[in-house]
Amino acid sequence: MKIIIIGCGKVGLYLAEQLSEENHDIVMVDTSQERLNSISEDVDALRICGNGASIQVLLEADIKNADILIAVAESDELNLLSCLVAKQISACQTIARVRNPVYSKDINFIRKHLGISMIINPESAAAMEISRILRFPSAIKIDTFAKGRVELLHFRLQKRFGLAGLKVSQVAERCKAEFLICGVERHEQITIPDGNFVLEENDILSIMASPRNAAQFFREIGLKTNQVRSSIIIGGGKIAYYLAQILHSMKIDVRIIEERQERCDALNDLLPDDVTIIHGNGTDKQLLMEEGLKVTESVVSLTGVDEENIFISFYVKTNSDAKVVTKVNRIAYDDIIDSLDIGSVIYPKYITADYILQYVRATGNSIGSNVETLYHILDNRAEALEFIIRENSPVVGKPLSELYLKPELLVAGIYRHGKFIVPRGQDSIQLQDMVIIVTTQKGLRDIRDILR
Amino acid sequence: MNYSIIRYIIGLILNMEAAFMALPMVTAFLYKESQWWCFAGTMVICVAIGILLTRKKPTNKVFYVREGFVTVALSWVVLSCAGAVPFVISGAIPDPVDALFETVSGFTTTGASILPAVEDLPKSILFWRSFTHWVGGMGVLVFLLTLLPLVGGGKGHHMNLMAAESPGPSVSRLVPKVQSTAQILYSIYFAITLLEIVFLLIGGMPPFEAITHALGTAGTGGFGVKNDSLAGYSPYLQNVVTIFMILFGVNFSVYFLLLRKRFSQAFRSEEIRVYFAVILLSIAVITLDIRHMYDSVGTSVRHAAFQVGSIITTTGYATTDFNLWPQLSRTILVLLMFMGACAGSTGGGIKVSRIIMMVKTFRREMRLLIHPRSVQKVAMDGKAVDTAVIRNTSAFLITYIMIFVVSVLILSFEGHDLVTNFTAVAATFNNIGPGLELVGPTQNYALFSGVSKLVLIFDMLAGRLEIFPMLVLFSPKAWKKF
User: Chain A contact for B154, CB < 8 A?
Assistant: First the structure.
């Protein structure tokens, strides 16, 4: 596909890297020549210096033949205008990033009446992601399939679960819940395990299950499964605002600690009265203790300084059992941060980009392959694909144990007549099923590709 | 420095050269010549070394600017050495230095020869000489890029290869992907070459000569298959070659824009306008200057146009001995040697765009002297030129002059006259071929000693690769691991 990206900030650059890796034709537009020059040659893209809302610049970028335009420049208005102009001269799909909360209520109107295919608000998306984690505090990260009816949960294997040293097949026997272990990350290495794979302490497991079965599984191994009941949010920025709204609607007690007086006042006006706004410094240990650090069930550090967030999370981890979520915006050393014990880390730039990527992949997939949805999981090192079986093929009707599957590939779930089935050897794929495949081999285009 | 990827690419280049040599081998079979085994033997050697080098895939695929420069320079050296082998073992050019000179002259599209009589050579050898022009014109690594993705993952790194090999101050992509850009360039190149062959055949040129001359024109090389270059052909054929020489000196991105029907953008290019203006002006002046030497004005125009086209595009074919022309015409031709063709074409020289940029920089400095606080930007085609490009252009010119001076100095040890030495360096450094006096169109480079030939070989490579890759290749710092 031909994709034009307007604005090469953090998100634009990350998108360009991912999409050029996936072999799309990328054109990058930015007003600063300097910034265009600083893009590494890793990105195989045409660079055009200019204002992305100008017709001349868009024509130079060959908008007429483009499939998707992604506007992620600094200014909301520029992004919207670029999409509007592009819509007038081309048949491409348009995606705009709009982050001003003032517009957030107009998003549906804008999308409908201005013909923009997708509008993303990074802060609201990040808040959604955090709320999902707080709803299910035992998991590090949750991906959803089949419109939320199947979940892929990632969590770290702790000693007290009593699962370390067992084979994957033994784990399945011990638990009554229906689930499938479809990925294990150990020392940066991703494995798609078979029945004989032996688990170890500190592995990060990915399990596929329906939400009910996932809850049952966690109960059986003795892990808290209920959503948190209280939360301290440190830092009162835009994400905090959206998050507080969501958490409040989930009946969670929220306290926001914010340093600036005016911002406290503003939040006080914007948010419901049940949300407590505290004027103070989030790095003040005394204040944190006073506000119930020991007893709260979750702490979310959302200050504007990454280092501060990381240290607050460290402090909370050592002093409390609360679920910790840390926001990291700027620091590029992802692998180091992931190795720190600071709970779930969220990267707003990746969340925004991943939403857009999902959209782009879905568009790309609808041309020329029958993949329904494609998720990059486990740090992009594995893929989970949804297929809908519409026609007969060699994989249909035979028990899975008789299919000669590729290595490092797993039929992770079958969704049939509104019911999720954890596939075993005697199960078979039927017409009209929705099948989820997890694999480290990239580039599957068709369900037949799972065979050797 | 990432050695493994350089080793790997050099191996690929050798394999590719072996594939190229299949063409002259087929020619040898067609004309029932015994030289086919020279090419077959060289192919075996190339493939053997090539397979040895490419057997292990590089572990580290990261590719920066310096790897790009070193790889390109080294590839060209290796390519030339391997390409010289058939000349030596077939006995066509027994002396290794002479053979290397001839091959480098071929790949760099110079067309300077040490052979006094080419008509005596076997057809397969002549074909190989002309084919090196065609390959060298658009670039070997660019050719490799069209075939296979060299470096996995971040394919944008390929740009570093292309930038190091393509002529001109700054290389731009035509389409988002580097590989597609390379493919488009080669398709255009191939198509225009075919077109020329057709036009030459229509004019009654024998097929072998039509093909070799088209290959020589396309690469703006200049190796012919006749002792008197193109003087013996009909006016129609000479005019066809004139037009195609000038076409191959045009920036190829213009053709791309024309194909995409973006005419206004194509004709906006200042470089193209200046290029054609200089050609027309030179033809006019030279025609006036030489009209008394030929019987009709038509003949004068034809000869003037051919020689101007041949020299400004740095091809080096001749239809007449321009060494005998009046001083004014000779001087114009020497000046055109330095100017060269457009950036992004197959021609050599300093390039029209660099000259324009330097004139504009000079104008800006003048204005700054008069209005010291005025804000001035150098603009090309209505867009401000990046200061890095201007700095690079200035550095290029300074280095160009220094290498030129040193080369002339070394050549002068042999005691030939100044015009010979000066134009010999100018004609090789700018990849033209014939110079004036002792290296004029009817003469050749056999008179120089081995040392002088090595200097000229360096000049040819440096001229084709635009100096810096060759200098980086010989810089110890570039080779350090850290």
Answer: yes
From the list A125, A132, A166, the residue with the least C-alpha distance to A148 is A132
At A145 the three-state DSSP class reads: strand
User: What CA–CA distances, in Å, run from B118 to A444, B42, B93?
Assistant: 58, 22, 11
**Through-space distance between the first and last CA atoms of chain B, rounded to whole angstroms:** 7
Listed as ranges, residues in chain B with pLDDT below 70 are: 149-156, 482
What is the distance between the alpha carbons of residues B315 and B328, in angstroms, rounded to a whole number? 21
Q: Kindly state the DSSP code that residue A63 receives in the 8-state scheme.
A: G
Tokens at residue A188, please?
């940066």
With respect to residue A366, please indicate whether it lies within any of the assigned structural domains. no
CA distance B14 to B22: 13
Alpha carbon of A2: minimum distance to chain B alpha carbons (Å): 9
**What is the distance of C-alpha B333 from the center of its chain?**
18
Number of independent structural domains in chain A = 4
Asked if residue A225 is part of any domain, the answer here is no
Q: Would you call A40 an interface residue with chain B, using a CB distance cutoff of 8 Å?
A: yes
The Cα A414–Cα A408 span in angstroms is 18
Binned at pLDDT 50, 70 and 90, residue A434 comes out as confident
Q: Express each pLDDT in B303-319 by its tens digit.
A: 999 999 999 999 999 99
Is B395 an 8 Å CB contact of chain A? no
- Tell me whether residues A40 and B178 touch, CB distance under 8 A: no
CB within 8 Å: A25 and B180: yes
Q: Using the beta-carbon criterion (under 8 Å), do B176 and A40 form an inter-chain contact?
A: no
ipTM: 0.80
Residues B292, B298 contacting (CB under 8 angstroms): no
Distance from the A44 Cα atom to the nearest Cα atom in chain B, whole angstroms:
4
Tens digits of residue pLDDT in B28-53:
999 998 888 999 999 999 999 999 99
Residue at A365 is within a domain: no
Residues A59, A152: one domain?
no
Boundary-marking domain end, from B203, B222, B239 = B239
Domain extent for B95 = 3-169+176-239
Is residue A138 included in any domain, yes or no?
A: yes
pLDDT value of residue A166:
83
Neighbours of A418 (CB within 10 A): 7
A279 and A300 fall within a common domain = yes
Q: Which residues of A touch B60 (CB under 8 A)?
A: none
Over residues A175-203, mean pLDDT: 83
Answer whether B114's CB lies under 8 Å from B449's CB.
Answer: no
User: Looking at the DSSP assignment, which residues form a beta bridge with residue A118?
Assistant: A95
B176 CB near a chain A CB, below 8 Å? Answer: yes
What's the confidence (pLDDT) of residue A367?
A: 58
Strand partners, A191: A184
Residue A38 in contact with partner chain B when CB distance is under 8 A: no
A25 touches chain B (CB under 8 A): yes
Q: How many helices (H) and strands (E) does chain B have?
A: 21, 2
Residues facing residue A323 across a β-bridge: A298
Range of the domain at A300: 230-351
Kindly report the nearest CA distance between residue B158 and chain A, in angstroms: 8
Identify the domain boundary among B202, B222, B239: B239
Taking a C-beta distance cutoff of 8 angstroms, is the pair A57, A50 a contact?
yes
DSSP letter at A396?
A: B
Q: What is the DSSP letter of A401?
A: G
A264: pLDDT confidence band, cut at 50, 70 and 90? very high
Q: Tell me the C-alpha distance between A15 and A26, whole Å.
A: 10
Q: State whether A132 and A107 are in the same domain.
A: no
Name the strand (E) or helix (H) holding A15. Answer: helix A10-21
Is residue B426 a part of any domain in this protein? yes
User: How far apart are the C-alpha atoms of B325 and B331, rounded to whole Å?
Assistant: 10
A148 and A197: one domain?
yes
The count of structural domains within chain B is 2
DSSP A276: E
C-beta neighbour count of B426 within 10 angstroms: 23
